[in-house]
Design a protein that fits this description.
By secondary structure, the protein is of the alpha+beta class. The chain is built from 4 helices and 5 strands, in the order H-H-H-E-E-E-E-E-H. Strands 1-2-3-4-5 form a 5-stranded antiparallel β-sheet. The longest helix has 16 residues. The N and C termini lie far apart (about 55 Å).
């Protein structure tokens, strides 16, 4: 008989506890975490047409946004993979789209009848979340 022991650091225990709390108390945020977990499993050619898997850096970026988010921040956002290893967020409420890459993001939105958009914005989690809140 073999006995395996697993040593979990205090930091890992805190992360697991935080994740379990999110899943129980914040359904939109938990759904976003689950969606990102699913996207991390996509392999090369996941669409049958040569799509790239989501890059590790993009996954790290979106998770850093999730860590500072509130449940209400994710209530109207759909998360979708893009074929170029990035992630797209689309607001079900406003139709705004934010594309997140490894080091930059861009967005397109129509606000009060005016088309807004910007490309090649350096990624910073706080600024990204602020844009989500503005466009969402």
């Amino acid at each position: 008989m073999y006995i395996h022991s697993i040593h979990i650091s205090r930091e890992d225990k805190e992360k697991v506890a935080q994740r379990l709390t999110v899943e129980v108390t914040q359904p939109a945020l938990a759904e976003a975490y689950d969606r990102i977990d699913h996207l991390s499993t996509l392999a090369k050619d996941w669409d049958g047409h040569g799509a790239l898997p989501i890059s590790f850096r993009v996954l790290k970026n979106i998770k850093s946004v999730l860590m500072i988010s509130q449940n209400s921040d994710w209530e109207h956002w759909m998360i979708a993979p893009d074929t170029n290893a990035t992630i797209d967020l689309e607001s079900e409420k406003t139709g705004a789209v934010i594309s997140l890459g490894a080091y930059e993001y861009s967005y397109f939105a129509k606000v009060n009848g005016e088309r807004l958009g910007e490309s090649h914005i350096d990624f910073k989690p706080e600024a990204f979340l602020e844009l989500m809140r503005k466009l969402g």
